[in-house]
């Protein structure tokens, strides 16, 4: 069997870990189970990542990157400020509806990270990146459209993300499409009023 370098194996293991833990949960995500998911020796996981926590960190980074990329791609180039905010919120909500397992996995990893010192930095990095991208998108939309923001873009971004996280948790816990749609519209209206 040909040797596969750690650099080549890394994305394969991250993908396998995401698939396995999205299906079975973080608690089941041992290095042994993830290695079996990919069909490699457990030592391969340890060689590639060192520790299970480093693998979890890589999973959080990949999930964050994927979600940010999907939403950023949806940013309109020529819409009004209001339409841009609506489009971005809808694009982010679509990721919840289409990829609930990814959002659930990210939520589980976030809760684990709160009590795992080695993962706390990964959690701060995740939220920091999401906040930075959201702030940037708000700033860019305001600049592109000539919209004078009523509050700093970072404050608007934090407000939106706090509400969005709550809606996501409600969707994962007690889905109600009609209520969620109404709440998302209300959140967007509140964000626009703040902006």
TrEMBL record:
PANTHER family: HTH-TYPE TRANSCRIPTIONAL REGULATOR BETI (PTHR30055:SF234), HTH-TYPE TRANSCRIPTIONAL REGULATOR RUTR (PTHR30055). Residues 7-67 form the HTH tetR-type domain. The keyword Transcription regulation applies. One of its GO terms (molecular function) is DNA-binding transcription factor activity. The keyword Repeat does not apply. This is HTH tetR-type domain-containing protein. Residues 30-49 bind DNA. Signal peptide: none annotated.
